[in-house]
Design a protein that fits this description.
Layout: E1 3-9, H1 16-21, E2 30-35, H2 42-48, E3 52-55, H3 61-71, E4 77-80, H4 92-100, E5 106-110, H5 122-139, E6 150-153, H6 154-160, H7 169-179, E7 184-188, H8 204-227
Parallel strand pairs: 1-2, 1-4, 2-3, 5-7
Antiparallel strand pairs: 4-6, 5-6
Helix pairs in contact: 5-7, 5-8, 7-8
């Protein structure tokens, strides 16, 4: 079963090489970095570290993720992680094994243990808890996090028919999976301080806009999946 790691990146030249180099090659067949119209050396550094770079001119987290999926249509498992070096790849093997053995269809690398101080700001923690609580409420399933690090089998991903193109993409993925009864597992993957300034939590405007899009994605799932 082929495994492809997809990393969206926007102006992450200082981090992307380290991120790509830190992924265990023995368990991964390909690393695809989706350059979301960077204006720095992100693409060059990613290629130098061994990744295949795909350009997605449409700005947006979800747009970048799905461009990565479209660039590797034959993969059996997709791993998604951020390009800022905050996600730790140490538990990727365990996450993929859960899918390989059929114990899970979606595995979340939750940020509940080994979280470096300062890596998650107070408003990020609060917003995350509220969204997770909402997803748990509408699905009847207890979840702990809405992480950027996750692995999913290709058939399940395609069945979800995700439409979100912005920062609500992860929320839509997890909410739909939870409501539809997808087998979800959680692995304590840890988290560390990102390299560089966040495009979301680095400003009040970015944080508010991301929070709106995330909540809107969950509410949309609540409405549409209820009708199903």
């Amino acid at each position: 079963m082929s495994v492809v790691v997809i990393i969206p990146a926007l102006n992450e030249e200082s981090a992307i090489g380290r991120v790509v180099a830190g992924i265990p090659r023995g368990r991964v067949d390909e690393i695809v970095v989706v350059d979301n119209r960077s204006t720095d050396g992100t693409a060059v550094n990613a290629e130098a570290a061994g990744a295949r770079v795909v350009l997605q001119p449409e700005r947006g987290y979800g747009a970048a993720m799905m461009a990565g999926v479209e660039a590797a249509p034959d993969a059996h498992i997709y791993v998604f992680m951020d390009g800022d070096d905050a996600d730790t790849p140490d538990r990727l093997g365990e996450m993929m094994d859960l899918i390989h053995t059929g114990r899970a269809q979606l595995v979340l690398g939750v940020r509940t243990r080994d979280v470096e101080r300062g890596s998650l700001l107070w408003h990020q923690r609060l917003g995350n808890r509220l969204v997770v609580a909402l997803i748990s409420r509408i699905s009847g399933r207890r979840l702990r996090d809405l992480p950027s690090l996750k692995a999913i089998d290709a058939a399940t991903l395609r069945s979800l028919r995700l439409r979100e193109r912005t920062h609500g993409w992860t929320a839509e993925l997890i909410a739909k999976a939870a409501v539809r009864g997808v087998a979800i597992a959680e692995v304590d993957a840890g988290y560390r301080r990102r390299i560089g300034r966040s495009k979301v939590s680095g400003s009040v405007k970015g944080s508010v806009l991301a929070a709106y899009r995330i909540l809107a994605a969950v509410v949309r799932v609540w409405r549409t999946e209820g009708r199903r």
